[in-house]
Protein: LLM class flavin-dependent oxidoreductase
Amino acid sequence: MTKKLLHLNAFLMSTGHHEASWRLPESNPYANTDIDHYLNLARIAERGKFDSVFFADAPALFAEVGRRPSGSIEPTVLLTAIAAATERIGLIATASTTYNDPFNLARRFASVDHVSGGRAGWNIVTTASPDAAKNFGLDDQPLHADRYERATEFVDVSRKLWDSWEDDATLADKASGVWADSSRVHPIEHVGKYFKVRGPLNVPRSPQGHPLLVQAGSSEDGKQFAATYAEAVFTAQQTLADAQAFYTDLKRRAAGLGRDPDSVKILPGIVPVLGATEAEAREREEELDRLIVPEYARIQLAKTLRVAPSELAFDRELPADLPDEDEIEGAKSRYTLIVTLARRERLTVRQLIGRLGGGRGHRTFSGTPEQVADALESWASQGAADGFNVMPAVLPSGLEDFVEHVIPILRQRELFRTEYTGQTLREHYGLSRPSSQYERVLQEVAS
Amino acid sequence: MTKKLLHLNAFLMSTGHHEASWRLPESNPYANTDIDHYLNLARIAERGKFDSVFFADAPALFAEVGRRPSGSIEPTVLLTAIAAATERIGLIATASTTYNDPFNLARRFASVDHVSGGRAGWNIVTTASPDAAKNFGLDDQPLHADRYERATEFVDVSRKLWDSWEDDATLADKASGVWADSSRVHPIEHVGKYFKVRGPLNVPRSPQGHPLLVQAGSSEDGKQFAATYAEAVFTAQQTLADAQAFYTDLKRRAAGLGRDPDSVKILPGIVPVLGATEAEAREREEELDRLIVPEYARIQLAKTLRVAPSELAFDRELPADLPDEDEIEGAKSRYTLIVTLARRERLTVRQLIGRLGGGRGHRTFSGTPEQVADALESWASQGAADGFNVMPAVLPSGLEDFVEHVIPILRQRELFRTEYTGQTLREHYGLSRPSSQYERVLQEVAS
Structure:
């Protein structure tokens, strides 16, 4: 029996996911606006035959700018530049359904899909950020449930727009002078609670039909949304048991909605910190943690927990009377994950800051390449993952190390590809190309 | 005395500006979604040392899809791909102030400016299109005056956002662990009639500070807007006298607003159709006009004139009782230009369709390379132009011909550069880099 291959996504972020990575002597602290830095990262990931690279985003300046590289090139712009410098690797960008119009955004993803020859993916987020709301005329963000309701309609409209040109609408008939068959280019005439959009889209159907749809919310609304729409799911899971429960639950939800559970790929995040020996890896991790400025990190933690920074004493555990998840209108699942982690391991605020500094709630794993490969195989073979969202603590070195030392071990174990077999992002993830919902059923009449 | 050099922008559009260009045997009718086609065009323009390439756009599917290649890759995506394939040429994209949010759009142009090393330009349009309105929840487009009022506030907000990071805000101080000086990253706290935006922008200041601001409206509102904000102006002018009047008026308006008139570059459009002899050029033009499908073109003309297609008889002049420009809420100046052209030359509908088929109201000029160079020099030397918006009827051949045959003549006459002397788009156009409006005046205290 052939083992199922893992899917690997490289989640890229300036000098790395560890918040203090920019302070290392090796790091370029201007990496966040340096296109050559990102082209280099993408080429390394493609050399490793990753399924895709991914950039997170929000339409607001997050975090204290003193703390770490802040502000970034808009991800669809970044991915387009990367498309021109690579051949096969998939290109996934976050974009918000709360702070975009579906016509413009559907057009943009279709455009990236065109210029990349079918390698575009969209990580659909509702943007849990009061700061973002204030950049778009609002005083505070819309309620969690309303954001998801809008997201649902947004994706619905987007799919109609991507389908509005049938695949064979363009005739290019020079002799008769008819460029396209207008009966195969459809106004979508969408009228809903949030959007009224006539269409059709102003770009012909793209190579993948739809970009790959990715989702990362883990709240109740988020999981239901993922089960309905997502083809790949990024998730933060700290323990095997939690990851298995999430995996089983999401696959079951998808099946319950009539979808093939295998058409939803689940990729927990992992922040690998590699060393030639276990001790070396741990030393690297400690070096990074020592570079965290605790005052900055406490401000961020306090913001997430909706308390004043002064309520968090560095050498005590979290206060007992934190709000319930139900009261959080922001990143519900991130909130619960952090509080659960702190309570379970009885971490002081200082220890918690160290744990979060590496991966903002994602699982940090330090060890040898063999140990990291074991960790990945263990989760994948025990029903916790179809692959992983690889979040190097330091970039580019952490990605290079992963490609040079971990991926060869995964290949020896027949757990990862040695060459790309497909051309499009959907093909890398083993997902089919959707046909247009407006496609006419052609009836052959025997005559 | 050194002559003033011309500025040349290459206005690119699928198989060319002539609506029937796609029907030529040489043309790739799928060019509109073919990134390699556009990379090739940009490389040709860069070989010719054009100041910039430019793509028009509207968030709606214009025109009858049967008539000509329709739908296109979103221009900021296209320009980003081109940025990666070129070194120096400027990159100008149209984007609408009526159907975008300033936070997202300002971020996107700053991002293109970052990835291109300072080569981004924004052609600011208010989008005269009822079809576009229907893709954004509206039943009809906002009134002309309201669109311009919104555009004014939109540009104001965008400039604040581009300025929100001072140039030296990033300290990258690894030793102390302070990445940026938060006192040099400013919330903009904009509250206006159309927008409420807190800021700051989520990307550091870009190489040009602001992208080059371009404008193309020629209505009264459009001219006042251009005089206030534009650094380059694209305009459709059919006669030397009209072009001179426009040029003089716009420079005077800019001066009246306290601007150096030379900081507004005026570039009339020209559709050159080249031949080794005058007869050959005219033959080429006639070949193209014969390929126009009159029924399609009449639908488009009727739409612009706000009449039913049946009111336009092919072999008669335009009806006498057309609406006044004041009643047009769409492209006012385009409307007036077409009606004036038809009345002045007493053109039948069929003749008018031929004239518009080449350049949609822009000046078509067929002739030898020498004659085209004469035409450009004549306008520039008589106070009608600082340069030209070159709109090849057929692509890529029309652009190649211009680069190989017209540009060398302009160089012989010392009217065009032989090498780029600057790196950024602003430098190509001889425009200064704006400093941030939030820049603190540093006071040196003698001690």
Observations:
- Chain B has one domain: 7-294+358-428.
- The longest helix of chain B spans residues 144-163.
- Residues 7-294+358-428 of chain B form a domain with the TIM Barrel fold (CATH 3.20.20.30).
- The longest strand of chain B covers residues 265-274.
